[in-house]
Structures are given as structure tokens and as C-alpha cells.
Known about the structure:
This protein is α/β, with parallel strands linked by helices. It has 10 helices and 11 strands.
Amino acid sequence: MAVRQPPVLALCRRIRWAAVSLIAAMSGATAADAQPALPVPAIDHGYWIISAREADGNLGRSQLARFRVWRFDAGGRGRLTTIDEFYGSLIPGAPVCFMAHGSFVDWESVRDDSRMTNHWLRSPAPQAPLHVVFFHWPSDDTPMLLLPVDVTILGRRASRYGFYVAEMISMIPDDHPISLIGHSHGARLVVSTLHVLGGGRVDDVAFAGGPYHRHRVRAVLAAAAFDHDWLNPGELYDRAVQRPEAILNLVNRRDRALGFYPLHRPLTLAAAARSGFTRGDRQSIGPQSQKLVDYDVTERVGTGHVWPTYYTNAGIAQSIAPYVLFHDQPALAATRAPSEVLANHPVRRMESHRASKWELTPVGDSR
């Protein structure tokens, strides 16, 4: 079901930037010139909210026409627009970051949190080009009669809506690196998206044409509310590790809400955010497990679970920056934080399960 960018829109976009490049080449400008031959496109510090609340749930056909799209400036002033305007606004080569919220999040919370999150994501490099998209899915309309039942319903729903994010990614031109950030059940939505891009199925529906290999992809999981073994062979999202260059899992061993996670259904294992990916998980996944980075944020987040406990922490923003901004750095022999790792390389956890003892070593290109 993979769909591509509308041909006319894609052609106009390429012609526009080809013309800019041609004029620059003909101008004869050099680095020594006092003034550049052409103005550099201004960095847009705004962001987008794309809502899939009106999607009909049919994974067998495109739902983009049902999405509602808002464009916001950096100050949080927004207007309703179209999905075509979003695709037409993309600066060639600039990373595109999709953020998925967790469960029990209403429109007002999405609107308020998105402005703060946009500023937080850009704070490590304010002048770096970055397109930020907040994906809003219906996570606040369950009966709320029995919490474990609601949690199960919403977890499965998040998995289905990951298919829609994969569809949006498939329409973005190939030169844009893609980052995915998910919080709580939004992390499950993200691994579902990765699973689909890797050739997996959601509710027995797969992308037409098989595994998807066009973009560079990285992911960040915060307060991840899914079983830690669900990326293992034969499990629910066993294709999720096939496509991305790296997946950063923010581990919080004192997350109070996820302490109750195993109670929502029988035989449930600990959530990935509480336990990290275990030695057994890594052995089961094999060489691809080198892409999985467990980074302990327990001392920074404490018992908190809600998203503001993350986006109010400047240190976490710095740590995830290589996964969002694609600012690659020379490989280091040993480091203590993922922000110091060449992020398009898989990394290996060397020892210890404590917050300050992560040692990560680049071990070769995953692509």
C-alpha cells in the first residue's frame, strides 16, 4: 500500500531546487566572495501536528486524505492546512522527525506539549534544519471502565496507527533522513512503524512491494510501554530492527506507571523502558541487536512517566540529538553517552546496568 508523493508536486519541488543549484553554478561565486550568490533558505523553527483521528481504520487503503493538518510557528500560533503543504514545505536533505504521544492524551495536551517539545528538540542545535511533526492518534476515547482493558485496547490501537506513519514516510523524498520518537504507547507505535518498514505485517497487512529501504532511519523510545522481547524473532515486531540504523531506548528503572505494566494482561513481561533489552533478547536477535542502545535516564527522570518529565530535561535533549538531527561525529573508542556515538552505526553495550556505567562502542555500519 506504499504511496508516493504526488508526481506534479514532486516534480515542481525538484525543478525549483535544481534551478537554484544551476543559477549558483553559473554565477561563478567562490568562497572568497563577500556576498553569497543566492540567499540560503531560512530555517523554519515551526512544527506540524498531523491528526489521524478521522482515519477509518482500514489498513488496506491510503488514509492521508482523512488526516487533518495544522502548521504552527515557533510561538505556537497555528492554522489548519493540507498534507500537500507539508510535503511541499520540506527543505531538501533536512531531517524529518515524527513524534508519537502515548495513551490518554487529548488534543489540548498535544497542542501544548508540541510547542515545548519542538523547542526542546531543537535546543542542542537551534540553527540546524529540522522538520518536526507531531502525530496525533485517538488515545483518549476508551470507556475508562477498567484500566487494564483500556491499556490493552490502546496498545493495540497504537500498533495499527504505526502503519499510517509508515505511509507518510513513504511519501517523503529519499534525501530526507527520518527520525521517530515515541513516548509510552507512542513507542509501541514507533516500533510498529519500523516493523512495517522492515517488511512486517500489522493485523496481517503489509506494505505493497515488501521491505522499504529508501530513507535513513533512527528511533528514540521514551518510557516504552511494550514487552522487552517483542523485537525478538517470532515476536510481534520482529522486523523492527531490520531498517533503522539505530534505536535508542531510554531506560527508567523507577518508572512508577510501568511498574504496573505486567498486570495489564497475563504472562506479560517487563516493559522495555523498565528492563531495557536483556542479554537474552540480544542473543535471540543476533547481530542486528548491535543497533539497540539502552541508555539509562533513571537519575534524570526518577519515578516520572509522563512526557513533560522528559522534555523539561536539557540533558536528555543533548543525548538524543544525534538520533534526531543526524549530526554524525567521528567514531570514538569508548564513550559514556549516546550523544557521543556515531549515531548511524550500531552500538554495543559493554557492561553494567547502572545509569553512569554505559560504555558504547561503534562496531561498523549497519546499512
